[in-house]
Every structure is written in structure tokens, then in C-alpha cells.
């Protein structure tokens, strides 16, 4: 459930597993391969790099109320992407965020990571998985639509709220 081996369309073998504190050493190489635009789409703010303080927060999440899965290239050991899920204070709904190595976009990895995170959320008994997506992030919005998320507008903030009621997701579709 926590770990899964997948093969991308181009044959690349990838392991999904929970992020561990020692993965901090994989981040500099990963972040060097993430464009400023992708950082903006993920963090909603222009940033040239991730501060040490933010990195520390991303690595040392509270496992009682959050989960982060990393995608590791099984040949090189490189970090390819991270998907996170942070529960609300009642542990009923989870808020996700996802970021991939920019060159790998469009290879099907994001889709598989989202499915892995959704399966985990359903298994944990959460009611919904939710996220905020910038209105111009067409790839992510299309993907969310195909995954069954309901999408609503927050035009004032330029974002869309995406919500997936987990009881609408058949378990067999997640494997
Ligand atoms: C958004 C992001 C996670 C998407 O991941 P990705 O690996 O590029 O996307 P994928 O290749 O898995 O999927 C993209 C496409 O395949 C479709 N798709 C992929 N696998 C599929 C499958 N097995 N079945 C059906 N559709 C599939 C998607 O709908 C989409 O369609 P398109 O390529 O025709 O537009 C990634 O681009 C990213 O990290 N972006 C920057 C950060 C960001 O935007 N984060 C989101 C904010 S929370």
C-alpha cells in the first residue's frame, strides 16, 4: 500500500515510497531540474529557489497528519517527483500538492502518483482529497477532471478548487 513499483510509458522503472528525512540529500539535484515556472505552479509564488526553512518543513512533516510519497528512479536512485497529502485538523479531508522533475512532465508519472496518493487517502478513510490549482494550470486541471475531481472557481484569487469525494472512487480503479 505504501510502496509501489511502476513502469512509465518509456520503460523507466520507478518506486513510490514514503519520503524519509534522509531524502533531503536528493533534493538539490531534484530542485535543480525544476523550472521557476513549475515552482510557481506548485507554490503559487514566484521563487527562484526553495528556502532552507521551507525545505525543512517539506521534509519533516508530521506523519500522524500528513504523508508525502516520493518517486525514485530505480536505476539511478534519483528523486523524480513528490506528492503530498496534509489532513485538515479533523483528519477528514486531505489537501494534496504535487511536483515533478520538469523534463519528466508528460510521461504519465503525475497521473500514477496522483492515483497512488488517492488510493492511500481512501485506505486511510479520508472523505475527500482536495487541492488548489492555478487557473492557468491546464495540464493539472485536465488531469484532475479525468481523475474525477469536481472543479470550482475562485476567480478572485485566480485559482480553482478541486475536490474528489473518495466514496465516488471505485477501489478497483486505483490499481
Ligand atoms: C501537473 C503535473 C503533476 C502533471 O504530471 P505529468 O506527469 O506531467 O502528467 P502526466 O503525463 O501523468 O499526465 C498528463 C497527461 O496524460 C493524461 N494521462 C496520463 N496518464 C493517463 C492514464 N493512465 N490514463 C488516462 N489519462 C492519462 C492526462 O490527462 C494528461 O493529458 P495530456 O498529456 O494529453 O494533456 C506536472 O506537470 C507538474 O509537476 N507540474 C508542475 C507543478 C504543478 O503544476 N503542480 C500542481 C499544483 S498542485
Describe, in plain words, how this protein is organized in 3D.
It contains 5 helices and 8 strands; from the N terminus they run ββαααβββαβαββ. The chain starts with a strand and ends in a 10-residue tail after the last strand. 27% of the residues lie in helices and 31% in strands. A hairpin with a 5-residue loop joins strand 4 (79-87) and strand 5 (93-100). An 8-stranded mixed sheet has the order 1-2-3-4-5-6-8-7. The radius of gyration is 15 Å and the shape is globular. The protein has 175 residues and is α+β, with helices and mostly antiparallel strands. The relative contact order is 0.15. The chain has helices spanning 27-32, 36-43, 52-59, 109-123, 138-147, and strands at residues 4-7, 13-18, 66-73, 79-87, 93-100, 128-134, 150-154, 159-165. Coenzyme A binds at residues 38, 41-42, 97-100, 105-111, 131, 133, 137, 139-140, 142-143, 146.
Range of strand content: 25-35%
Residue-averaged pLDDT, rounded?
Answer: 95
Count of individual helical segments: 5
Order of helices and strands: EEHHHEEEHEHEE
Number of strands: 8
Computed Rg:
15 Å
Quaternary structure classification: single chain
What is the general shape? globular
User: Main beta sheet, described?
Assistant: 8 strands, mixed
Query: Which compounds are bound in this model?
Result: coenzyme A
**Strand sequence of the main sheet, in spatial order?**
1-2-3-4-5-6-8-7
Structural class: alpha+beta
Helix content: 25-40%
* Spatial separation of the terminal alpha carbons: 10 Å
Q: Low-confidence parts, pLDDT < 50 over ≥5 residues?
A: none
Amino acid at each position: 500500500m505504501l510502496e509501489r513499483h511502476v513502469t512509465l510509458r518509456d520503460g523507466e522503472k520507478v518506486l513510490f515510497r514514503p519520503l524519509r528525512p534522509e531524502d533531503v540529500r536528493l533534493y538539490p539535484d531534484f530542485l535543480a531540474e525544476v523550472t521557476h515556472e513549475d515552482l510557481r505552479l506548485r507554490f503559487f509564488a514566484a521563487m527562484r529557489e526553495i528556502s532552507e526553512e521551507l525545505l525543512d518543513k517539506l521534509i519533516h512533516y508530521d506523519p500522524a497528519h500528513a504523508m508525502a510519497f516520493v518517486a525514485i528512479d530505480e536505476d539511478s536512485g534519483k528523486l523524480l517527483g513528490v506528492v503530498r497529502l496534509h489532513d485538515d485538523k479533523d483528519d477528514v479531508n486531505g489537501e494534496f500538492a504535487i511536483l515533478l522533475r520538469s523534463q519528466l512532465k508528460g510521461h504519465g508519472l503525475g497521473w500514477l502518483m496522483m492515483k497512488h496518493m488517492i488510493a492511500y487517502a481512501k485506505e486511510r478513510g479520508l472523505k475527500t482529497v482536495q487541492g488548489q490549482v492555478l487557473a492557468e494550470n491546464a495540464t493539472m486541471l485536465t488531469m484532475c477532471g479525468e481523475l474525477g475531481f469536481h472543479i470550482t472557481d475562485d476567480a478572485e484569487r485566480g485559482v480553482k478548487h478541486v475536490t474528489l469525494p473518495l466514496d465516488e472512487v471505485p477501489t478497483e480503479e486505483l490499481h
